[in-house]
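Suppose you are handed a protein chain with no further information: no name, no annotation, nothing but its sequence. What can you learn? This example shows the usual starting point.
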Amino acid sequence: MIGILGKKIGMTNIFNEAGANVPITVIEAGPCYVLQVKTKAIDGYDAIQIGFAEKREKVTCKPDLGRFKIAGTTPMRFVKELRVKDPSIYKLGQKISVDIFAKGDYLDVVGTSIGKGFQGGVKRWGWKGGNAGHGSMFGRVVGSIQSGARLGRVTKGHHLPGHLGVDRITIQNLEIIDIDNDKNLVIVRGSVPGHKNSFLMLKEARKKPKGYIRKKAIQIVTTKKSVKATVKK
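A reasonable first move is to predict its three-dimensional structure. Written in structure tokens, the prediction is:
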């Protein structure tokens, strides 16, 4: 599986060829550098470790600084692992650019959702709450959470007020609208997790890998031909 690290620039909208208003997200993807190559023989699985966004040596701890020097790169702020099928094609310090993807490909984007602090059950879980008028004292509050006669305790995992956000979220099958190789920009259809300038992981879509559209088009053409042949008979 191919992938790259990036940073969310922001959202906007464009009009496509049909005149429809399409929401898009602009992502700065790469360049990334290979920091470590892991093989099944040594590490038990095939993967590469890549880094994105340079940072100062002054704010880098010595163990990490040594690892970056071995790879021959500057210290990186965002480091992640990606599973690959053939790690032999990667080398330490190798540059990975946004050109590994093309317009029309599909991505799975992994990020951290925006933190919203401590929230009540109405906002966190969508509780209905009580009546809002006629002197009601029961509004956006918890209410009954368990039957005392049946169990006498709160069921484990019950939805309650608490911390909301800052979760790892994956948005699947985002279509690449356009790519700017010179500025390392990827424009995808729809939204991605996180706030502006948050780090993201862009991976080839599991459900729609590279060449998905072409394969689907071939299947449609083949089906149409078989239908025509059946009609002629």
